[in-house]
């Protein structure tokens, strides 16, 4: 990450994406900074060190580990980010919240995740992922828990336009699938944290067998991302109740909706024809009209 080249709205996401590289104590310092509602250009290094109960030297070391020249560069970037409307959208849920408060906070968190994911999305990686999906002979999707639900949603969309994919959420099935992939095939690993062992192992095996690999994750430096040829990253700020997964799921689904549209565009006429056929096939199961 080169902080000089960062757009203001991508500062927060880029820092969060590098959090897995920090120790728990280092991560605590960064969390302390972002928890300060009045953090700005006047916030001293001494104040941060005292609030996080660490030395000033350690704060400087952390800012350099995040890719900044030092504390001043870090402070300037974060202060500018904090002034953006999107940065103010995230608000923690509390026991005193009314239903209106809850709805607004949840929606704003998702809107922020979408805006910030858009700001960091690598269009070159996006295009390579679309090309890989379009030309693959076999497409296997791997995910566990909530990530498996995202994989199923994507698989469903692609089936509608005649792009077949197999979705696996069992560790043994993932490995069996990966063992049969080759250079003409594609494996996609879905994992918010990028630390899901079953998904990482399957992607590793698929890659060893020559298949192209894609990671859908919230952390571009995660173990899963390091095993993939192509990485598509979402970004979402966590909260004690909702965690990061809820908002990240919305962002990932939007990334993959865009991938779906781009794949369909590669062969628009065929996609349209297949869409009409699949819609017609399930039309008899609909109850749009009452007798």
What's the layout of helices and strands?
Blueprint: H1 11-17, H2 24-34, H3 45-52, H4 56-65, H5 71-82, H6 99-120, H7 123-135, E1 139-143, H8 146-160, E2 166-168, H9 171-179, E3 186-190, H10 197-208, E4 212-217, H11 223-226, E5 230-233, H12 245-266, H13 268-282
Helix pairs in contact: 2-3, 3-4, 6-12, 7-12, 8-12, 9-10
Task: Report on this structure.
- The protein is α/β, with parallel strands linked by helices and 291 residues long.
- The chain has two domains: 3-87, Winged helix-like DNA-binding domain superfamily/Winged helix DNA-binding domain (Arc Repressor Mutant, subunit A, Orthogonal Bundle), CATH 1.10.10.10; 119-282, Rossmann fold.
- 55% of the residues lie in helices and 8% in strands.
- The chain contains 13 helices and five strands.
- The protein has helices at residues 11-17, 24-34, 45-52, 56-65, 71-82, 99-120, 123-135, 146-160, 171-179, 197-208, 223-226, 245-266, 268-282, and strands spanning 139-143, 166-168, 186-190, 212-217, 230-233.
- A five-stranded parallel β-sheet has the order 2-1-3-4-5, with helices on both faces.
- The chain is globular.
- The mean pLDDT is 88.
């Amino acid at each position: 990450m080169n902080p000089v080249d960062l757009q203001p709205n991508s500062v927060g996401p880029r820092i969060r994406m590098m959090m897995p590289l920090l120790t728990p104590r280092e991560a605590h310092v960064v969390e302390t900074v972002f928890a300060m509602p009045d953090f700005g250009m006047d916030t001293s290094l001494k104040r941060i060190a005292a609030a996080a109960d660490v030395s000033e030297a350690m704060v400087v070391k952390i800012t350099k580990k995040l890719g900044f020249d030092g504390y001043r560069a870090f402070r300037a970037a974060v202060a500018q980010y904090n002034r953006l409307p999107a940065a103010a959208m995230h608000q923690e849920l509390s026991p005193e919240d009314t239903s209106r408060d809850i709805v607004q906070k949840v929606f704003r968190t998702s809107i922020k995740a979408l805006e910030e994911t858009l700001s960091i999305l690598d269009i070159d990686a996006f295009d390579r992922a679309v090309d890989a999906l379009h030309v693959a002979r076999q497409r296997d999707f791997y995910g566990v828990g909530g990530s498996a639900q995202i994989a199923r949603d994507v698989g469903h969309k692609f089936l509608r336009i005649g792009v077949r994919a197999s979705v696996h959420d069992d560790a043994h099935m993932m490995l069996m699938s990966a063992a049969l992939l080759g250079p003409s095939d594609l494996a996609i690993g879905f994992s918010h944290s990028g630390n899901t062992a079953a998904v990482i192992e399957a992607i590793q095996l698929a890659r060893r067998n020559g298949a192209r690999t894609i990671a859908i994750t919230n952390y571009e430096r995660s173990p899963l991302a390091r095993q993939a040829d192509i990485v598509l990253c979402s970004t979402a700020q966590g909260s004690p109740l909702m965690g990061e997964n809820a908002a990240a799921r919305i962002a990932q689904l939007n990334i993959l909706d865009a991938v779906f549209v781009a794949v369909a565009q590669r062969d628009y006429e065929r996609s349209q024809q297949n869409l009409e056929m699949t819609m017609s096939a399930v039309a008899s199961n609909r109850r749009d009209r009452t007798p």
